[in-house]
């Protein structure tokens, strides 16, 4: 069950979203009386099964069953949540928030973000990026190759969610507004979102990383990447009307130094001061070329794993690096990091999806009221 502190956080986020919705003409989404969860079957471009995890505003029933996350694939991790399986979606139509997980993750490892967002009026859709999940963690080369195909996974995810909205008897029937779409990602998933926002990338940069990193050759990393070429990078595939993107601690390995100059989607980058996996300095230096609207946020005391709630969930049991970062004495608690992410994501979406002109001021007020948060906005 959700803790009292998490419940208070959730209540504040729901109220914030409802207020934003009431100020946004033409938006008929409303807060839910329950969170529904369902899993859709989709396929990758090469025909592999790709589960899509979906949270949405639901209508509660007495016989509903609670969702269980990643129990069969990561038994060391525990994700608490309140979502109920296959509820009927609430009245109205809801925008879609596409979530892209990091390497070694799964689509259903973010209930700490997805459930509050769904309760506030979003359909959150998160695919398992085949080849980039925990079961693939020993095959670095395969993970790298598949990371380049992630944008197509998201295009297929949106198409499958839209299809479910048209299916009679589906929990999502008549509830999906597939023309109003936002993006959120963590780590490699955040890099995926930057690609889709138009950030210039170069697949050959992986080769330089390979050459500069001892031990990668032993994993056949270099051999797999050599000659991969830019044809593997489908930048911003068609059919994704992204209104904005939030990128949490993005992996910067593919990004061109001047790649931010081609960004044409409102972009919020967020980093953590204790992140040793994807430090924000390279992104921060590149962001000066972003034409705007864009923003750069940094959270003092946040590590790489807190942005997805992984320290509390037990990821330190399966990752040596997470064990180090999650044990740092001056780190922020996961719930505090998740609260900040929900607030920032909510206001960035209110501004760029709903057209709420007051959101910029509220973003600045959030930063002013949180000493650990630094925020620079380029309108």
Beta-strand percentage range: 15-25%
> Biggest sheet, in brief?
11 strands, mixed
The CA-CA distance between the termini, in Å, is: 40 Å
Radius of gyration: 19 Å
CATH class: Alpha Beta
| Gross morphology | globular
* SSE class: alpha/beta
Say which CATH homologous superfamily is assigned. Answer: Alpha/Beta hydrolase fold, catalytic domain
Number of domains: 1
Oligomer: single chain
Structure commentary:
This protein is an alpha/beta fold and 379 residues long. It has one domain: 3-Layer(aba) Sandwich (Rossmann fold), CATH 3.40.50.1820. The protein has twelve helices and eleven strands. The radius of gyration is 19 Å and the shape is globular. The longest helix has 19 residues, at 4-22. It has helices at 4-22, 111-119, 140-147, 150-165, 188-196, 205-212, 221-225, 281-286, 310-313, 320-326, 334-352, 359-369, and strands at 34-43, 49-59, 84-85, 88-89, 94-100, 123-127, 176-186, 242-248, 267-272, 294-299, 373-378. Helix 8 (281-286) links the parallel strand 9 (267-272) and strand 10. Strands 1, 2, 3, 4, 5, 6, 7, 8, 9, 10 and 11 form an eleven-stranded mixed beta sheet that branches. The model is unreliable at 1-27 and 229-235 (pLDDT under 50). Helix 1 packs parallel to helix 11.
């Amino acid at each position: 069950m959700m803790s009292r502190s998490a419940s208070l956080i959730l209540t504040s986020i729901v109220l914030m979203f409802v207020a934003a919705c009431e100020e946004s003409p033409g938006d008929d989404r409303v807060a839910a009386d329950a969170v529904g969860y369902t899993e859709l079957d989709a396929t990758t471009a090469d025909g592999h099964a790709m589960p899509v995890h979906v949270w949405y505003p639901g209508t509660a029933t007495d016989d509903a069953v609670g969702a269980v996350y990643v129990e069969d694939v990561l038994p060391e991790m525990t994700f608490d949540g309140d979502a109920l399986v296959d509820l009927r979606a609430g009245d109205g139509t809801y925008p879609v928030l596409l979530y892209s997980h990091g390497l070694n993750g799964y689509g259903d490892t973010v209930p700490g973000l997805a459930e509050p967002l769904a309760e506030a009026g979003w359909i959150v859709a998160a695919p398992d990026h085949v080849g980039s999940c925990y079961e693939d963690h020993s095959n670095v080369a395969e993970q790298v190759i598949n990371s380049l195909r992630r944008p197509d996974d998201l295009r297929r995810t949106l198409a499958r969610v839209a299809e479910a909205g048209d299916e009679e008897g589906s929990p999502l029937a008549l509830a999906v507004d597939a023309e109003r779409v936002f993006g959120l990602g963590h780590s490699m998933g955040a890099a995926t979102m930057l690609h889709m926002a138009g950030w210039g990338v170069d697949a050959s940069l992986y080769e330089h990383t390979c050459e500069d990193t001892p031990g990668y050759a032993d994993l056949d990393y270099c051999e797999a990447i050599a000659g991969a070429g830019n044809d593997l990078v489908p930048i911003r595939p068609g059919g994704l009307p992204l209104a904005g993107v939030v990128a949490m601690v993005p992996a910067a390995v593919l990004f061109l130094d001047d790649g931010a100059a081609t960004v044409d989607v409102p972009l919020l980058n967020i980093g953590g001061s204790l992140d040793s996996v994807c430090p924000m300095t390279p992104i921060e230096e590149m962001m000066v070329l972003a034409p705007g609207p864009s923003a750069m946020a940094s959270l003092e005391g946040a590590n790489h794993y807190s942005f997805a709630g992984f320290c509390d969930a037990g990821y330190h049991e399966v990752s040596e690096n997470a064990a180090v970062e999650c044990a740092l004495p001056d780190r922020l608690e996961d719930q505090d990091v998740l609260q900040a992410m929900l607030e920032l994501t909510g206001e960035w979406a209110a501004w760029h999806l709903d057209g709420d002109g007051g959101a910029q001021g509220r973003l600045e007020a959030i930063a002013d009221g949180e000493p650990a948060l630094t925020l620079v906005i380029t309108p």
